[in-house]
């Protein structure tokens, strides 16, 4: 998907560290309100410095947070917990590709 884009997007996590369950670094958990507050200034500076006007948020949590940042937000289903098909469909709707490439890519997964 990224290789087809004319301009590479900035890929970043709204919370730049990996939130995980205590003692289980490969697990996932939702970031806390306190954690988001701690990085709010960093994210605001990043948006301003790079003049970001549109965010594609992967997942509802990221989408809700991004909605507070004052730019256009498109939310795509996160691929975890059974959301791979919806994630691919969402990305395809934003960045369409020829059918023969889409079919070939789907076969790879």
How would you sum up this structure, described in words?
There is one protein chain. The protein is built from four helices and two strands; from the N terminus they run αβαβαα. Strands 1-2 form a two-stranded parallel sheet. The model has no long low-confidence stretch (mean pLDDT 84). Helices cover 42% and strands 9% of the residues. With 109 residues, it is mainly alpha-helical.
Features:
109 residues, two-stranded parallel ribbon, 2 strands, mainly alpha
Low-pLDDT parts are: none
- What is the number of helical segments per DSSP (H or I, 4+ residues)? 4
Which oligomerization state do the chains in this entry correspond to?
Answer: single chain
Number of strands: 2
Order of strands in the sheet with most strands: 1-2
Q: What coarse outline follows from CA principal-axis ratios? A: globular
Helix content bin: 40-55%
* Class by alpha and beta content: mainly alpha
| Main sheet record | 2 strands, parallel
Arithmetic mean of pLDDT: 84
Residue fraction in strands? 5-15%
Element order, helices and strands?
Answer: HEHEHH
Layout of helices and strands, plus pairs?
Elements: H1 33-50, E1 54-58, H2 60-66, E2 72-76, H3 84-94, H4 99-108
Parallel strand pairs: 1-2
Brief synopsis:
The protein has helices spanning 33-50, 60-66, 84-94, 99-108, and strands spanning 54-58, 72-76. Helix content is 42%, strand content 9%.
